[in-house]
Every structure is written in structure tokens, then in C-alpha cells.
Amino acid sequence: MQNMLTLISNVFRLGNASKNVGAQAVSELLIGLSKYVDLTAPPAPATPRQPPLPPGTRMVVSARSFADFTPQASFPIKKCDLHRLEEGPSDEALLTREQGLQYYRTMQTVRRMELKADQLYKQKIIRGFCHLYDGQEACAMGIEAGINPTDHLITAYRAHGYTFTRGVAVREILAELTGRRGGVAKGKGGSMHMYAKNFYGGNGIVGAQVPLGAGVALACQYQGNNQVCVTLYGDGAANQGQIFESFNMAALWKLPCIFICENNKFGMGTSVERSSASTDYYKRGDYIPGLKVDGMDVLCVREAIRFAADYCRAGKGPIVMELETYRYHGHSMSDPGVSYRTREEIQEVRTKNDPISMLKERMLSNNMSSVEELKEIDLEIRKVIEDAAQYAISDPEPSLDELCNHIYARDPPMEVRGTNPWVKLKSVS
Amino acid sequence: MASLRSFLQCNFDILRKTFVILFVNVRDALNQAMDEELERDERVFLLGEEVAQYDGAYKVSRGLWKKYGDKRIIDTPITEMGFAGIAVGAAFAGLRPICEFMTWNFSMQAIDQVINSAAKTYYMSAGFQTVPIVFRGPNGSSAGVAAQHSQCFAAWYGHCPGLKVVSPWNSEDARGLLKAAIRDDNPVVFLENEMMYGVPFELSEEMMHKDFVIPIGKAKVERQGTHITLVSHSRCVGFCLDAAAVLAKEGVECEVVNLRTIRPLDVDTIEASVMKTGNLVTVEGGWPQYGVGAEICARIMEGPAFNYLDAPAVRVTGVDIPMPYAKILEDHSVPQIKDIIFSVKKVLNM
């Protein structure tokens, strides 16, 4: 059983695994499973005879076997409010067991990773800015589930969740937060400046990422590659002038850009009512159609982004989405987050609306997984996070030789002035 | 008439090839450079206000939209922050944009995108994300356009690591440096000068070659001299040469250095010149405080050339005021040839 779960997790683990490895892992899974279950056989009898277990296998308490779980189920999801659209996404979402486990694993990893970052920050091992994403996991996971790895994504500074869903390993994220050479940006970027293939950060200036995202979409259109760019911003950024400039050009030129406002109700300490004359962020694109989506429901987000991506790929131009979500932490680690909202409010969201709990509930009540299986996954994730944190703490800081590197790309080495005229530092590309 | 024109055209081509020198003004040099680079690499495209159907506010992009069409020559709305950001994003995703600011004064609306999104990204990403973009447009004073349209941004952008900042003077500079800038994988700020657009210069056959590039970061000694070094960039290089011609009649031989690039600054060429002549005057159109000349003087102080100075280095700059409108006031707000001559004589104690 343990080996099977490992094999399943190998297949669906997000991280640095490429699609080729994924296919390979699926083959391994099938070969591995064939030792336990004849895949072409009729469903197992009520009390299956257990085959001899390989040495060293941990016994799972429950006797449920793989074939007992429901392979897929359909869930009703909240209907989206529509702006300038005749039809919206479906109000029903199909979830397979594999998808459910994948989403659970990913969201739980992001949750645990952010909590670990919180811990490391309080221990002063992480310094500077640290904007945590816990509570908003369904947004990152739902979006990634609905687009292709070849599509593009750009967001603002609350970026750790997206850095993970876009393919960067937890250890590289945490090591970047602790400023070590093993960090995804070699320790030179920090929390807000992590990059990966088709992921353009991580941007510190509120709103600046939106024209950038529209530009990426322009490149997609120019190159005719049928890709889209998901461009995220918050409710606080939603009033930025450059966002409206981007709306204008994206609509004018029909850029394949999905503008997404992650509305977590607060721009730092300012509630949406106090910052925005109109809080209907999905309508702020005016002439651009919009959808308002339950951002705490990963299936809702997935269906909406699929709808939006189809819309853009059809050449209809940009679309705006508002994801209603919530952050458990304050704006950043220097904000306790309770001066502008009540602890009761935060607690209420945790108990009634938590994205991970919602998914877990759905899967358990439809027999798509078991408490034990999910607990297994939790334990695995905990190990991954612990290992990553250990790495992030023990990895050395960047060498001082790195200080002046990466000023210019593809240039011969040059000299950079140090803090005084006698210090001449070397810079290579 | 058509046949006469084609007869002349035919023979002009022969004449052009026979007599290897051609007179090309700065505007046409820029235009041809962009044309050739657009042809060479399909990832290159131009965007900005009026660049397409209007043929360019200053006609620098004349004919390009007709030749390349909407996809590659894009008219933008008057939204600098938005379109500069879009240009940078396109560069992130693999294109090679040329982003035109109608004048560099308007770049202040977009300066966050130039500095924070373009200049710093390669460093912040530890070499993962390149930004192969050129921002270009006319910089500095013009004629009668008053305070908000006359500022020089060489010092502003020259201050920032991660940017390359280039300031051509003549057609050779314009052509070679623009080609180099477009082919460079880094963000380049390309500071043109509106008053130079219509000025013709000789271009040799070698310079007309489609792969003619001038290395960014290398200054050029335009005139050899022995008594004093004049360092300048953009339009003021011409003033320095004029001043040198006048001074030569009085027996003073000025060495004129055309910076060509503001950042990275070619200190080696300046130092070599100062060590030869023993005197330095910098000349620029921008304001004095924290300017290009200030940087050059500081570097000379900190380097080996200081010991060769016979007198303190001095700066000739624009007057430290917003640009006035009335012609008499405007004329007295910018460095003139007589100011350069006066400063040289002061430095040489004549």
C-alpha cells in the first residue's frame, strides 16, 4: 500500500518534474499496481485476499484497497456573476480522484510552506518583506489546473504560492526567502522576485505587473502560439491607472490576457469599501467582459479559468476575473492583521470557508479518498517542508563573488565600482 | 517624368556606389537602422505614439508602417506607463521591442517600468530573465518648447545599474549605436536629439553596411589635440568641435572626446586623453547638479589621471533653471560655443 501511494504521489507531484517524467511515472505506477491488482479484472470482492506484502512495507490500518474509491464525481459549484457575458462557466465541475489528490497535495503544500515561512520569519531567519498566501491556495491551484504549463503567469508580491504551482521546488523557494545560494534567484531576489519558465514573478511595485502581463500576452499574439497570459493583481492594486491603461490596449488589440483581481477584501490595512468607489472589480474592465468567482473553491476557480482561457484563445480579446478570497495572515509579516479586521472574522473563514477543508470534505463524503490516505499525504508534505526548511537554513549564503554578477546579459566581464574608489569588483553575465 | 526619375535613380545608385561617401541626416540614419534591424530579426517591433500611420512625430519612423504593417509598427494610445510596461512584458516573453517615447520628458510617466521592471530584472532573477528592449526618443532641449519639454535625462538614467544609456551625436553614431542597441540583450536607453535630426553627415560605405555596429561603452576621439580635453555627448559634441576650430586659430589644440555612451562610461578613453593633455572641460546640455560632467570629474579625481591635471577640471552645462520660453532667455540657458571657449581659456589661464 505504501509503495502504491508513493507511486501515486510520484505521478502527481508538482515540482521540477517535466511532463516526460510524469509519463514515465505513470508507466511505473501501472507496472507497480499490476503487482497488487489485476487492472483488467472485475471489481474486488467484499473481503479481498491480501497478497503477500514486500518486506519493509508499513501496514495501513484500513483494509480499503485502491479499487474501492470513487474514481470521479460531479460537484455543483457557485454560479459566477457575469458582466457583459451571455454565458459563464458551467455550474457543475467534474473532479477525478487523481485530480482531487493532486489539488489537495498542492494546496496543502502551499499552506504548510507559508506557515513554515511564518515560523522562520519569527525566528528572524527570514528578513525583510514576507507576504503570505495561506487562505488563498484555491486561487493558485485552480488557475494552474485550468491552464497549460506553456501558458504564462505574472503576479504581484504575494507570490510564493504561484512560484510553487508554476514549478519551483519548495526548497528553492524557502532558500530564496532565507537568502541562500540555493534559492531560485540565488538569494539575490528575495520573497518578491522569484522567476521560473513562463512565470514572470513576483513583482514589488503595486500594479506594475499588469502592463507587463499584457505585454506577455502581446508576445503570445505576435508569435501566434495560442498561449494566454494570466495577469494577477489585488483589490488594492485595482485602482491603479496603469491597469486601466492595460485594459484599454488589451481590448483594443484583442490581447489574450486574463486579468485577475484576487480580492481578499483588504489592501494592506484598507478595506475595499474604504479604497474603491466601485468594489465590483469584475466590472471595472468596463468594456471588457468579467466574471466574479468564488476564490475559495478550487473547482470554481478551475472552471472559470478554463472558460476564460477558451475565450482568449478564441481571439475574443481580454477578460477580467475577480476571485473572492481571503488571507489568514496580515498583509505581511510585520502586520498582525487584526487592527482592521476581527479575529472572529478570520476564524469564521477558517471554519466555514477554508479551501483545503472544502476539498477534503468533498472527497471524503464522496468516497474519493480516506482520512488515512489524506493523513499520509499530510505526513509526506510535512517531511518535504521540513527537509526544505532544513535546506534553507543550512545552505550557505551566496558567495561575495556573486555581488556584482548579472548586471548585463551576454556581455564580457566588466568592472564595477565598490563602496570606495579602491574597491574594484568583477561582474560577469 | 517617370523614366527621367528612374534614369536618375539608376545613375544615383551607380554614383552612390562609385563615390563611397553619402550624406545622410541623423533622422534617416535612425530610420535606416530600424528598417534594417526589423528586416533582420522578426522579433523586433516598434511601438509608441504616432510611430505608425503618422510616420513618427518627428518622422523618424517614416515609411516603416507602410513596409511592415500593423503587427510590427504599433500606434499606442497616450498611455506611457501602460505601453512601456507592455513593451517590457513583451521583452520578457521573447520579443525585441523598440519603445519610443515621443520625448524623454514623457518617460517620467513610465520611469518605474524602465527602472524597476526593465533595468533591475536580470539582476533580481540572478540571470534568469533577460530584457532585450530599446527605449528611444529625443532628449534634452529643443527650440522654444519651454520647461516641461526640454529636460535632459542622461544623468537620471545614467545613474541606474542594469541599464545601458547611449547618447549619439552624428549619423554614424545614430546608425551604429541604434543597431547595437537593438541587437543588445539588455535594456538600452537611447537618447536622441531633436535638433540633430535634420543635420546631414558623411557616411562611408563601410558605415552603410547592414551589419555596421558601434560598440556600446566606447567613446570616440573626434579630434586629436594636445592642450586640453573636451568631453561631451550628443549635440554639444558639435559645439566642442566648433569651439576647437576657433581656438586652433589662437594656437590652442583641443582634443574632443565624444562619449557616445553615458553608461557604461568609457573612463579609460577620457583618462588617456587627460593624461595626454593635462586639462579637462566637460560639456553637456543638462543641469549641472549631479550631472554627467560631475560624474566625469569625480572619476578623474579618483583615478590615475588626477596627477596629470595642470588645473582643476571644469564643467560647462545648461543653466540650473527650468527652461524658459523667450528666445533670448532660452539661448542663454544652454551652453554656447563662446561658453566653451571662455572655459577653456580660464582653465588654461589665458
From TrEMBL, chain A:
Swiss-Prot/TrEMBL catalytic activity: N(6)-[(R)-lipoyl]-L-lysyl-[protein] + pyruvate + H(+) = N(6)-[(R)-S(8)-acetyldihydrolipoyl]-L-lysyl-[protein] + CO2
Residue stretches making up the Dehydrogenase E1 component domain: 106-399
First-listed, main subcellular location of the protein, grouped into a coarse class: mitochondrion
Pfam families: E1_dh
Enzyme Commission no: 1.2.4.1
Record's subcellular location: Mitochondrion matrix
GO terms (BP aspect): glucose metabolic process; pyruvate decarboxylation to acetyl-CoA
A GO term for molecular function: pyruvate dehydrogenase (acetyl-transferring) activity
GO cellular component: mitochondrial matrix
Keyword Magnesium: yes
Top-level EC class as recorded in UniProt: oxidoreductase
Record keywords: Carbohydrate metabolism, Glucose metabolism, Magnesium, Metal-binding, Mitochondrion, Oxidoreductase, Phosphoprotein, Pyruvate, Thiamine pyrophosphate, Transit peptide
Highest taxon listed in the record's lineage: Eukaryota
Cofactor: thiamine diphosphate; Mg(2+)
NCBIfam families documented for this protein: PDH_E1_alph_y (TIGR03182)
Its job: The pyruvate dehydrogenase complex catalyzes the overall conversion of pyruvate to acetyl-CoA and CO(2), and thereby links the glycolytic pathway to the tricarboxylic cycle.
Name listed for the protein in its UniProt record: Pyruvate dehydrogenase E1 component subunit alpha
Species: Esox lucius (Northern pike)
TrEMBL record, chain B:
Keywords attached to this entry: Carbohydrate metabolism, Glucose metabolism, Metal-binding, Mitochondrion, Oxidoreductase, Potassium, Pyruvate, Thiamine pyrophosphate, Transit peptide
UniProt xrefs under Pfam families: Transket_pyr (PF02779), Transketolase_C (PF02780)
Record EC number: 1.2.4.1
SUPFAM superfamilies in the cross-refs: Thiamin diphosphate-binding fold (THDP-binding), TK C-terminal domain-like
UniProt-listed InterPro entries: PDHB_mito-type, THDP-binding, Transketo_C/PFOR_II, Transketolase-like_Pyr-bd, Transketolase_C
Record SMART domains: Transket_pyr (SM00861)
Highest taxon of source: Eukaryota
One Gene Ontology term of the molecular function aspect: metal ion binding
The reaction(s) this protein catalyses: N(6)-[(R)-lipoyl]-L-lysyl-[protein] + pyruvate + H(+) = N(6)-[(R)-S(8)-acetyldihydrolipoyl]-L-lysyl-[protein] + CO2
Compartment annotation: Mitochondrion
Single biological process term from Gene Ontology: glucose metabolic process
Cellular component GO terms, alphabetical: mitochondrion; pyruvate dehydrogenase complex
Enzyme class (EC, first level): oxidoreductase
Keyword Oxidoreductase: yes
Residue span, Transketolase-like pyrimidine-binding domain: 24-199
Co-factor(s): thiamine diphosphate
Chief localisation class: mitochondrion
Subunit organization: Heterotetramer of two PDHA1 and two PDHB subunits. The heterotetramer interacts with DLAT, and is part of the multimeric pyruvate dehydrogenase complex that contains multiple copies of pyruvate dehydrogenase (E1), dihydrolipoamide acetyltransferase (DLAT, E2) and lipoamide dehydrogenase (DLD, E3). These subunits are bound to an inner core composed of about 48 DLAT and 12 PDHX molecules. Interacts with DLAT.
NCBIfam families assigned to the protein according to its UniProt record, in alphabetical order: PRK09212.1, PRK11892.1
Role: The pyruvate dehydrogenase complex catalyzes the overall conversion of pyruvate to acetyl-CoA and CO2. The pyruvate dehydrogenase complex catalyzes the overall conversion of pyruvate to acetyl-CoA and CO(2), and thereby links the glycolytic pathway to the tricarboxylic cycle.
Listed name of the protein: Pyruvate dehydrogenase E1 component subunit beta
Species of origin: Esox lucius (Northern pike)
Phylogenetic classification of the source organism: Eukaryota, Metazoa, Chordata, Craniata, Vertebrata
